[in-house]
Amino acid sequence: MKIKGFLKDVTGAKRVTAARLDAFAKASSHIEKVDPIAEVVKEWHPGRLEVVVTDVRPASKTAVTVRFERTDGKKMPFFYAGQYLVLDLKIGDAVVSRPYSISSAPCEGRQEPGFAEITVRRSKGDGFVADFINERVRPGDVFTAQVGCGQFYYEPLRDAKHVVALAGGVGITPFAAMAKEVAHGTLDMDLTILYGSVSSDDIVMKEELDAIQSDRVRIVHVLSGDEPGWEGEKGFLTADLIKKYSADDTTYFICGPQAMYTFLREELKKLDIPARRVRFEVFGQAKDITKFPGYPVELKDETFKMTVRRGIHEDVIDAKATESIVTALERAAIRIDTGCRSGECGFCRTKVISGSVYVCPENDGRRAADKDFGYVHACAAYPTSDLTIKIPIE
Ligand SMILES: Cc1cc2nc3c(=O)[nH]c(=O)nc-3n(C[C@H](O)[C@H](O)[C@H](O)COP(=O)(O)OP(=O)(O)OC[C@H]3O[C@@H](n4cnc5c(N)ncnc54)[C@H](O)[C@@H]3O)c2cc1C
Ligand code: FES
After folding, report:
1. pLDDT category, 2, cuts 50, 70, 90?
2. What number is the average pLDDT over the span 316-323?
3. Residue 151: how many CB atoms within 10 A of its CB?
4. Average of pLDDT values for 326-352?
5. Rounded to an integer, what distance in angstroms lies between the CA atom of residue 322 and that of residue 289?
6. Which residue, 160, 169, 157, 182, is CA-closest to 82?
7. N or C: which end of the chain has fewer CB within 10 A?
8. Hey, which bits of the chain come out as E strands?
9. Mind listing the pLDDT tens digit for each residue in 25-49?
């Protein structure tokens, strides 16, 4: 019986081979140049896109919402509610990019024409890009952007059905996208947003958010300033307040200024919440690097010479001790890929050939091998001597 089965296999294989040879003989000699799988991947993840501003509207007294559509009229690429886009800008001589959480819903991106919106708060006086966007960006302006970056989104296999979002200031933006997606019926979770602001004037996207409240989306405004007549929650996002709005099984998403993260880490500890139930959005470059442990404060006023190698090109530029390597490159109009600007994504991975740098410990997202072989994430590395670096050719 065994032998018979074996022979059957051999004759079967012979038949298949003959059929294949026949198919080859009849096949067209035309080579199909379009790879349908590559086409689908390109549509969903097209990399850097050209986008045009189609609307700019106020989102509060201190913030604007900017709407982008693709210049080729297509839908936006796929992104999750909570992800960010990276916007490239040319401001004066500098070529810069910044990450902004997408404040519109993914379902709005998949319309025709699809759009993605960002909501940007003006700075308190030192905002290079934030102030440019608030004051100078107008409908018709064209930029490039990479849409759909980062890990800050709801994942039903990992996260609890009930989510408490802890937002501070303009950190409301990823939750605005989630709230809209839930309201649209394309994201299945129950969302309670505890939204901390100093005063009611600081609340960003208030009307838009209040209009989509439902039994699945609840927005609780919490004011830390003293405001006569305010009847809502007051103070900070403390453990007691968080507990009041939590269910038995809750996942916490946190997005806001750096100081809020430090505060909330302690508050969540008081509630014994397991780490797997807490998700933090990255907060960007350190505001004042001199405040971080181990920073050589005696160098803070120094400007070093940085030699930048790109293929056969070599430039020598100034690099301040208090600014990241990315900022030094951008000031000198040398393009380097960036995403999170928080040391996390690795887009700005750079080889330090000689010289020394300080790496911000809070933002050191490098792999162990990269540390051993002298690579840094340029958004989190600060020169502490003259140095030579090698960056990829754009
Ligand atoms: C994941 C993520 C999502 C975010 N989402 C939002 C959001 O939804 N809304 C929002 O408002 N913000 C958001 N931010 C913050 C945003 O990316 C910017 O940091 C913010 O708008 C402030 O940008 P800024 O350039 O004004 O100030 P900073 O980012 O603080 O940059 C100021 C720095 O620019 C550099 N600089 C100054 N002059 C020059 C020059 N001539 N050339 C080159 N560099 C110069 C200097 O180093 C200066 O310190 C997000 C950040 C992250 C990481
Ligand atoms: S831009 Fe993400 S690690 Fe530097």
Report:
1. low
2. 98
3. 14
4. 95
5. 6
6. 182
7. N
8. 48-60, 63-70, 84-91, 94-101, 115-121, 142-149, 162-168, 190-197, 217-223, 233-234, 250-255, 278-280, 303-310, 313-320, 349-354, 357-359, 375-377, 381-383, 387-390
9. 888 877 777 888 888 888 888 889 9
- Exposed e or buried b for every residue in 217-252, given b needs 16+ CB within 10 A? bebbbbbeeeeeeeeebeeebebebbeebbeeebbb
Q: What 3-state class would DSSP assign to 16?
A: helix
Kindly tell me if the per-residue pLDDT of 315 is higher than 70.
yes
DSSP bridge pairs for 49: 145
Mean pLDDT estimate for the chain: 93
Best CA proximity match to 80, nearest among 161, 162, 214, 186:
186
Q: Edge-to-edge strand order for the sheet containing 190-197?
A: 233-234, 217-223, 190-197, 162-168, 250-255, 278-280
Identify the CATH homologous superfamily for domain 41-149.
Answer: Translation factors (2.40.30.10)
C-beta 344 within 6 A of ligand 1: no
How far is the centre of ligand 1, averaged over its atoms, from the C-alpha of 98 (Å)? 6
pLDDT digits (tens, 9 = 90+) for 237-260: 999 999 999 999 999 999 999 889
CATH 3.10.20.30 fits 289-390, yes or no: yes
Mutation choice for ligand 1 from 318, 327, 347, CB with most ligand atoms inside 8 A:
327
CATH 3.40.50.80 fits 162-280, yes or no: yes
pLDDT recorded at residue 214: 95
Residue 341 Cβ < 6 Å to ligand 2: yes
Query: Of the ligands numbered here, which is closest to the C-alpha atom of 92?
Result: 1
User: Could you write out the DSSP letters of every residue in 145-207?
Assistant: EEEEESS-S--TTTS-SEEEEEEEGGGGHHHHHHHHHHHHTSS--EEEEEEEESSGGG-TTHH
**Residue spans per domain, the chain:** 41-149, 162-280, 289-390
Alpha-carbon span 108 to 115, nearest angstrom:
6
Query: How many Å apart are CA 67 and CA 117, to the nearest integer?
Result: 4
| Nearest ligand atom owner, CA of 378 | 2
Name the β-bridge partners of 376. Answer: 350
